[in-house]
UniProtKB/TrEMBL annotation:
Domain Response regulatory: 6-119
SUPFAM superfamilies: C-terminal effector domain of the bipartite response regulators, CheY-like
Compartments where located: Cytoplasm
Gene3D superfamilies, per the entry: 3.40.50.2300, 6.10.250.690, Winged helix-like DNA-binding domain superfamily/Winged helix DNA-binding domain
Name of the protein: DNA-binding response regulator
Hydrolase as UniProt keyword: no
Gene source species: Sutcliffiella horikoshii
InterPro entries named in the record: CheY-like_superfamily, OmpR/PhoB-type_DNA-bd, Sig_transdc_resp-reg_C-effctor, Sig_transdc_resp-reg_receiver, WalR-like, WH-like_DNA-bd_sf
Length: 227
């Protein structure tokens, strides 16, 4: 997911900060780091932060105290990390204003899923729109605009365009696209139906349709940047 969200990681362990930063960078998040609650407060004063990953056990100012102080001034989501398994600690963090809680050790996939879910809830308008240059898709309304003008697409055309745009640069075979858009349980037969929908989609998008690239011998991809 390409985005401009900035996440503040607050943890006194350098290895943990580095590991979390790597996971987040790989998902195209911008990352800031702080070693304790005091430093986190300073970072929030100087930077716009969309989400905070906050460790509980830290020197100088622990995560609970930091959470309370942050919540007195800011409303961005707070995801707390702890090695403790005590249910009371979880409840305490949530009562102080944390939005979610992850226990160490944690799965990177679970952590990233929780981060995305928190950002999605707090930035619903951002996640509702997928845009690449002149093509804009508003998912809640299932509307497509090209250069500001509404384009009417059939259901499968819309699904195909959105899927390719959300996976910009990735190549998908006709079989993969058929399974995703038409479903695994539908009769496959010939995959010409994928070719037909791509052709119609390109026609309706006019010049912008050239962004749907044919990868000969494989399938299709969406490429926003001209090469």
């Amino acid at each position: 997911m390409k985005n401009s969200f900035q996440i503040l990681v607050v943890d006194d362990e350098a290895d943990m900060r580095e590991m979390l930063g790597m996971y987040l960078h790989n998902e195209n998040y911008q990352v800031l780091h702080a070693e304790n609650g005091e430093e986190a407060m300073d970072m929030l004063y100087d930077h716009e932060v969309d989400l905070i990953i906050l460790d509980v056990m830290m020197p100088e100012m622990d995560g609970f105290t930091a959470c309370k102080k942050i919540r007195e001034r800011y409303m961005m989501p707070i995801l707390m990390l702890t090695a403790k398994s005590d249910e009371l600690d979880k409840v305490r963090g949530l009562k102080l204003g944390a939005d979610d809680y992850v226990m160490k050790p944690f799965s990177p996939k679970e952590l990233l899923a929780r981060v995305e879910a928190l950002l999605r809830r707090s930035n619903q308008a951002f996640f509702d729109v997928v845009s690449h240059r002149e093509i804009t898709v508003q998912k809640s309304a299932r509307q497509v605009h090209v250069g500001g003008e509404r384009v009417n697409l059939a259901r499968r055309e819309y699904d195909l365009l959105l899927f390719l745009m959300e996976h910009e640069g990735k190549v998908f075979s006709r079989e993969q696209l058929h399974d995703v858009i038409w479903g695994l349980d539908t009769e496959k037969g010939s995959f010409r139906t994928v070719d037909t929908h791509v052709k119609t989609l390109r026609f309706k998008l006019k010049d912008a349709g050239a962004k749907i690239k044919t990868v000969w011998g494989i399938g299709y991809k969406f490429e926003a940047e001209e090469t």
